[in-house]
Amino acid sequence: MDPVEVFRLALREDAPFGDITTPGTVPNGRVRAVVLAKGEGIMAADPLFKAVTRLYPSIGIAQKVRERERFGPGEVLAEISGPAWDVLLIERTLLNVLSRMCGIAHLTAEFVKRAGGVPVYDTRKTMPLLRYYDRYAVRAGGGYNHRLTLSEIAMIKDNHKRIAGSLRDAVRNFRRVRPHTPLIVEVESVEELASLEGLQVDWVLLDNMPIGILKEAIPMAREMGFKVEISGGITLQNVSEYASLKPDRISVGTLTKAALPVDISLEVVV
């Protein structure tokens, strides 16, 4: 969804009938405010700031910390100027999204640093309607985006194989309908991996496999001609160990599912 439309909907949620406090309290003169960090993070703001200024052309935002740069407590991330009523109307929605984005970027950067060169990907475990912002934040942290939607890349998962009867049957069924579409297949055991012999599969996602099993499964998958993704149970504490197995990529739902928002405030200074 268009990030501008997402921000518009978020504002409508926060002020469905307008801000009943501000217009009766302060004049609508121009004010200047700073966006102030109270914690550590990585700057991820570009699409958000662009959405704000497109919706409110009277508001100006001067970013003071460049995209993808680290920041710490006390740093001014941006200066905002505009009519007081508009600035106070967008304040909380802006901060909520920005805090989340900077937190995702920060966590992603930590995973990337510890993965030792193995690409780190996100998953579809994003906040509904905030997917574009979440995925942008992952890229700002040095990570990569997996399939953005169900419409983009075919991926056979556990529930598909349960309904189809087996993983092999699920792949065969899919290939009858879409013989040339790139396909990712989620695999949960070495036996399932072996069942894919002779089938047209591009990637196998080795899911929730212990390190010992992966040491057998990764070379086996490569011998079968598949690219290898590993996922499931990967944390900051163990990502280096998983990365040492040299998969083609690692996917981590935690990037967008569990990143802590950075504490950020907006303070009017004029």
Structure characterization notes:
The protein is α/β, with parallel strands linked by helices and 270 residues long. The chain folds into 2 domains: 3-105 and 260-268, Aldehyde Oxidoreductase, domain 3; 113-257, Aldolase class I (TIM Barrel, Alpha-Beta Barrel). Helix content is 40%, strand content 19%. The chain has 10 helices and 12 strands. The chain has helices spanning 3-14, 46-55, 84-114, 131-140, 158-164, 167-177, 190-194, 211-223, 239-243, 254-257, and strands spanning 30-37, 41-42, 60-63, 70-71, 76-83, 120-121, 154-156, 183-187, 203-207, 227-231, 249-251, 264-268. The strands form 3 sheets. A 6-stranded parallel beta sheet has the order 6-11-10-9-8-7. A 4-stranded antiparallel beta sheet has the order 3-5-1-12, with helices on one face. The chain has a two-stranded antiparallel sheet with strand order 2-4. Helix 1 (3-14) packs across helix 2 and helix 5 (158-164) crosses helix 6. The mean pLDDT is 97.
Unreliable residue runs: none
Percentage of residues in DSSP E strands: 15-25%
| CATH class term of the largest domain | Alpha Beta
Cα distance, first to last residue?
35 Å
Provide the helix percentage: 40-55%
Question: Largest sheet at a glance?
Answer: 6 strands, parallel
What does the average pLDDT come to? 97
Q: CATH superfamily membership of the largest domain, which one? A: Aldolase class I
Which structural class best describes the helix and strand composition? Answer: alpha/beta
How many domain regions?
2
Q: Number of helix segments?
A: 10
Shape: elongated
Along the chain, the helix and strand elements come as HEEHEEEHEHEHHEHEHEHEHE
